[in-house]
Amino acid sequence: MNKPVETTHLSRPAFQASGGAIEADAVIVGAGPVGLFQVFELGLLDIRAHVIDSLGAVGGQCMELYPDKPIYDIPAAPVLTGRELTDNLLRQIAPFAPTFHLGQEVTLLQRRADRRFDLETSLGTRFIARTVIIAAGVGAFQPRKLKVAGIDRFEGSQLFYRVKHPERFHGRQLVICGGGDAALDWALEFAGKAASVVLVHRRDGFRAAPASIAKMKQLCEAQEMQFISGQVTGFDVQGGRLSEVKVAGGDGVTRRVPADVLMVFFGLLPMLGPIVDWGLDMEMRQLRVRDTATFETSEPGIYAVGDINTYPGKKKLILSGFHEAALAAFGAAAYVFPDKMTHMLYTTTSPKIHKLLGVETPVFD
């Protein structure tokens, strides 16, 4: 299961500027496949990166929308799932020890007088960056909300759309709504740990991995959890707290289900969010690239790669995003190392790159 990833830190500590801001050579906005590969391409040029994503875990659309569906157009990988692609990318970038700042979105991006950039996130994390690469896909993902009047007052206390600290829900009466991988994964995770687990989905068909569906049915037969076909349409309160949810079934019967925690996994909606306020040239809700030699945006030092950008001939493919990330890294190097010529090196033969990757330089006869 793609559980939240705690913030990981660079092997060499990030410098804390005055006022608590983190000074960074590069900040990547977005931790999907293209954002992860951007870490690698920057790392080959000895540029360490901080990565920010609104989701609580890395992988972007691949992990949130199709973690177990096959992908067929990644070079040298005839077939792999979104989960496998994400795991492989994480292994590939491990030598460069990026810092991930997850579960937060960039709310402020502006130019400083010294030509660097100020960034601030929704959690108050602040950065001063030499360069910024936006790999935000189709935007920051926001959860689809449960449409029950008045239920939103419990969000963050008894109503949750994401799980950051699973141990908080042990021993609780859980009602989990949804029919995808996230809903079933968490239902299976909490079965036997929570006081009760009731899975609610509008129908008895699911959009989850077959193994997860089979395991869920097995647990229901063993009375270790329960499945109800229907939708949450109301709730009851006792002492100011959520105590029950009302589930309207397809059979016309409304059931009252005890609940002190309600988890809802209806999928995610892509929202551009604060990106539209950063003053960058846009076209059809995408960032316009002014130069496909570097994928720089209208603002020097800020780059756009992956599905967030647009230019003549643009193709929304992961493969295209990888290509864009490679060229954007060379563009960013000019800002990070303004007094140094950046040379093209090959991973097969370069001792410098081998040192960065932590591998031995092969000896050829």
TrEMBL record:
Source organism superkingdom: Bacteria
Gene3D superfamilies cross-referenced by the UniProt entry: FAD/NAD(P)-binding domain (3.50.50.60)
Molecular function terms, GO-annotated: ferredoxin-NADP+ reductase activity; flavin adenine dinucleotide binding; NADP binding
EC number: 1.18.1.2
Cofactor binding, note field: Binds 1 FAD per subunit.
Annotated residues for binding of FAD: D53, Q61, Y66, V106, F141, D307, T348
Enzyme superclass (EC): oxidoreductase
Residue stretches making up the FAD/NAD(P)-binding domain: 25-309
Cofactor(s) required, per the database record: FAD
SUPFAM superfamilies (UniProt xref): FAD/NAD(P)-binding domain
Alphabetically ordered keywords of this record: FAD, Flavoprotein, NADP, Oxidoreductase
Catalysed reactions, as listed in the record: 2 reduced [2Fe-2S]-[ferredoxin] + NADP(+) + H(+) = 2 oxidized [2Fe-2S]-[ferredoxin] + NADPH
Quaternary structure note: Homodimer.
PANTHER family: THIOREDOXIN REDUCTASE 1-RELATED-RELATED (PTHR48105)
Family statement: Belongs to the ferredoxin--NADP reductase type 2 family.
Protein name (database record): Ferredoxin--NADP reductase
Lineage of the organism: Bacteria, Pseudomonadati, Pseudomonadota, Betaproteobacteria, Burkholderiales
